[in-house]
Design goal:
Elements: H1 11-19, H2 29-41, E1 46-52, E2 56-63, H3 67-72, E3 74-76, H4 82-88, E4 92-94, H5 107-110, E5 116-123, E6 129-137, H6 145-168
Antiparallel strand pairs: 1-2, 1-6, 2-3, 4-5, 5-6
């Protein structure tokens, strides 16, 4: 799927997001439980299922968000840590956002105190990367491989639920 194209702006990926109804404001209870479980398992205040669009990142489910991000349920895509996981197809881990070269100048780091992040891409059975299951904290920290394995398992659960929507729509 990455034959030189911009994955985030790939029309086929964006069409898959639309087919799955992932831009709806409706919160899926299974996804909500999944983000709560992720935050709890990694002992971090914030858990998200994000859907990365071409111009924005939407929060399909969130736990622990406050302020403008909770109200808007998203950010511009250029402020998105999750877009890096979507682009690469690999987990994106930031131990200290203030020193990480890809994210240190993002407004969510400077204004919203995002300090650590671990995100696992949500990849459908058709190979499309929709967004991530991620956790966020306000203090720098390392992530053990076992913690990333927990996130991978929860990301698989999220993808199963998302793909079930295909049958429902």
């Amino acid at each position: 799927m990455t034959d030189g194209r911009d994955v985030v702006r790939d029309p086929e990926r964006l069409a898959e997001i639309a087919r799955l109804g992932l831009t709806s404001q409706e919160v899926d209870e299974v996804l909500q439980q999944t983000v709560e479980e992720a935050a709890r398992a990694l002992e971090l205040p914030i858990g998200l299922v994000t859907i990365v669009l071409d111009e924005a990142q939407l929060f399909a489910a969130h736990h622990g968000l406050t302020g403008w991000m909770a109200q808007s349920r998203g950010t511009p895509v250029e402020w998105s840590f999750c877009a890096h996981a979507v682009e690469s197809g690999q987990p994106f881990v930031v131990e200290d956002a203030e020193t990480h070269p890809l994210v240190r100048h993002m407004p969510v780091v400077e204004l919203d105190n995002v300090r650590c992040y671990a995100g696992i891409p949500l990849v459908t059975s058709t190979g499309h990367r929709l967004g991530t299951l991620c956790v966020i904290g306000h203090e720098p920290r390392a992530f053990a491989e076992q913690e990333l394995d927990v996130l991978r398992g929860l990301a698989e659960k999220a993808v199963q639920r998302i793909e079930a929507r295909r049958k429902e729509n």
